[in-house]
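[retry 2/3] Chloride channel protein: previous attempt timed out, resubmitting with same input.
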Amino acid sequence: MANITKKVSWSSRADESGATGEATPLLNGAEQRPLSRQLSGGGNIFQIGRLSTVDLEEEMTSEEESLRGRPKEIAHNEKLLSLKFESLDYDNIENQLFLEEERRMSYMGFRCLEISRWVVCGLIGFFTGLIACFIDIAVEELAGIKYQVVKKNIENFTEVGGLSISLILWAVLNSAIVMVGAIIVAFFEPIAAGSGIPQIKCYLNGVKIPRVVRLKTLLVKVCGVICSVVGGLAVGKEGPMIHSGAVVAAGISQGRSTSLKRDFKIFEYFRRDTEKRDFVSAGAAAGVSAAFGAPVGGVLFSLEEGASFWNQMLTWRIFFASMISTFTLNFFLSIYHNNPGDLSNPGLINFGRFETDTVAYYLYEIPLFIAMGAIGGLLGALFNVLNYWLTIFRIRYVHRPCLQVMEAMLVAAVTATVSFTMIYFSDDCQPLGPDHTEEYPLQLFCADGEYNSMATAFFNTPERSVRSLFHNQPGTYNPLTLGLFTLTYFFLACWTYGLAVSAGVFIPSLLIGAAWGRLFGILLASFTSTGNIWAVPGKYALIGAAAQLGGIVRMTLSLTVIMVEATGNVTYGLPIMLVLMTAKIVGDYFVEGLYDIHIKLQSVPFLHWDAPATSHWLTAREVMSSPVTCLNRLEKVGTIVDILSNTSTNHNGFPVVVEVTAGDEPPKLCGLILRSQLIVLLKHKVFVELARTRLTTRKLQLKDFRDAYPRFPPIQSIHVSQDERECMMDLTEFMNATPYTVPQETSLPRVFKLFRALGLRHLVVVNDSNGVVGLVSRKDLARYHLGKHGLEELQLAQT
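[retry 2/3] Chloride channel protein: success.
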């Protein structure tokens, strides 16, 4: 018998029976009166009692609200699952309207739909590539101006003294630029903070994250990431490209903009969650492709990190979007670099070519690579643990927008100060050859014809620093320089991730790894005989970069392919794969990947690939929500309005049953209808009595439901008169007559597999005679996870 640890207290308005439970602080600092759920053990069978979830938002006066809205400290408990997140409807609603539309559609109609899907994917790739191009050019130009101003200032003051003025100039410039980026994120669109990858992972997993694919989010994301990178923070612009691609996909595939209130009357068929989610996975892949010049890596990223449901045609279309994206970026950047048609800049980060003859590897180096993977896993776990505690501190204390902006400015100023101090005290001078690749070489206190090596790492955009660590000649970096750089940049990057700015963690991870990897290579070379330089530092910089990135984000398949595509050399496929596997195994022993940690901190009901290992003894009856609010096939309008208006049971799916009979027998199931459908029916007043009196009534079509998608009006905005409340509504035509059901004795893993693989939102639990006994939703399954003490159950709270 598996062991289940009960750490459950249900937060709700009041407990009628007066039961008390363990008090759990909610995310919003609300005062709560908990309910306890009983675990009764009888013989060998555990019975888990169920209660339906209740809304925690109490009616408050404006005075109370203002007091409660600004708590000094927001208590945070990660043993919570938030009820504010809804699921996406990935399953098609096969009602009579849907079947009639399919019957009417000709063969040519289906062909046109298929062509439309390819056109949409092509457009997604094109616009994602354009956005990547815009970000790249804006960062290059603005960072160039900033570094030239600071460089000139430093050179002037090196001769006459007073370098502190240069430091103040650098810190003020950084803080001012980052302040702009932080203000637009913190005050206008907080969801645009960070890289956006955790949110897109959740969206593709089937969770509806509010505002994640809005046009406003995209604008704030793009401007925010430009400010973050130009402001000198330890961030990259590659991660946010994935989020940007997803927003572009969500917008284009709908053929309209709800934000701009413009409807272009195209792609109307795709206005539903099923189609939209497929296109968003194509957008995410196009974002990866534009960022790294890795179309195959993009497809694999969508497959590994996101989409629950996959088919062959979807793979092909996503690959097409990725290819178009990298080609568009390539083409426009070639025009920007004044050699149109030269397609050698496939991504935002270009690692440069690793030539096989100069950097071959040997069998005896493979154990060294695996050891580097283990180091990457350990450092990645340390990074994630530090960032986890830092994020909890931010949730508790730095939750006001003005505080978030001030923190971002502080980090920008500290980054500039640390960089300046490191460059100032470094005496690592290197000769400036005729073929030098340094963009902004700083002489400082070095002799004429030499430059400060530490400045190459700090006084540059992160992408350039990565490339110099990969490709600069052996001897360009002093081991002490690399060691100090790794140490300082590690803590700066850790502090920066999670600020209220748009920023990715890919490039900082690569930069930290490349620095300690190059250091590892230099130390290896110094241990061997002087004449034989078999440890080429650039090769170890690449392996270190892969190890560090793998240790932080824990992606395996897609990251291997992205790294191989970005280096343009398949020779490194095996070492990179071994390094990433080792980094993941070692890192997972201590803590989860960075994105998974942030998903958990947001209390998102995320469904992993499989149910917890020891959950076969739990059945659908113990997991389901009950009692279920059911509707009759012919239901009174007043009853429907009352059910939808009831805030305490904010349900989204209602089983439709044959007339409920008196007695204890559960009502027989005959279909399922969604809240959104009922709202559209009420809005159009599809009542039986009105249909009889108005002979010319236009029959409701699927187009009416698609036009209302995705922002269905709230029930409060629909006016129903007292007379109309007495009317009846026939749900037969609109309900899904064949919803997925499971018997109540089905084990949790079987329920989980069915729910996860088909991307369901509701799964009806029935008894032997097809009577409705319960309903399984995403939160019921996401509550169970394998902890250190066996199977644990999370709490649900309206946070």
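[retry 2/3] Chloride channel protein: The chain has three domains: 118-337, 363-407+419-602, 620-796.
[retry 2/3] clearing retry counter.
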